[in-house]
Amino acid sequence: MFFNLKRRRKDSRVNKEMLAVKKSNRSLSAEGLARRLAQLVLDKKGEDLVILDVRDRASYADFILIASARSARHVQGLADYIEEELFKEGIEPLGVEGKSEGQWVLMDYGDVVLHLFFEPVREVYDLEGLWIDAPRVEPETWGLVFPEEVQDEG
């Protein structure tokens, strides 16, 4: 297989406007977007949600959300659901990585970055340990609604 590396398309430069989250339809602040993402995670039974406030600690984001799922398929379904729901609201990610494998999906929404992990993979990378000094936001303080737990009737 041969590739012509010298041949480039004339429009190969990156358009910065294409990289930005759609702001014309987005009326959410970084905190509002983080709240919305957190609620979507909880709606689809994402587990062990951690919300990190990195406004004073990172230049690339204001909030980092980390959540687990029970299987690779659950990770993929959660990522699809979040992407579809926010798209309906006119909010698109800058990028989504890892969805096809379902082990670790990174969803970059600019001011908010969401990491979705298959449970065993999350333990290996320990992002919470990396951000140990970052303040944590408890979901309850944001008024997030947890889905009702299904109880056995046996």
Describe the structure.
With 154 residues, the chain is of the alpha+beta class. 30% of the residues lie in helices and 20% in strands. A six-stranded mixed β-sheet has the order 3-4-5-2-1-6. The longest helix is centred in the middle third of the chain and has 17 residues, at 72-88. It is globular and about 35 Å long. The N and C termini lie far apart (62 Å). Residues 1-25 have low confidence and may be disordered.
Short description:
This protein is α+β, with helices and mostly antiparallel strands. It has helices at 16-19, 30-43, 72-88, 119-125, 127-130, and strands spanning 47-53, 63-69, 95-97, 104-108, 112-118, 136-137.
What labels would you give this structure?
154 residues, alpha+beta, Beta Polymerase, domain 2, 5 helices, disordered N terminus
- Give the assembly state of these chains: single chain
Span from first to last CA?
Answer: 62 Å
Query: How much strand?
Result: 15-25%
CATH topology type: Beta Polymerase, domain 2
Task: Report the sheet with the most strands, covering strand number, pairing sense and barrel closure.
Answer: 6 strands, mixed
Tell me the CATH architecture.
Answer: 2-Layer Sandwich
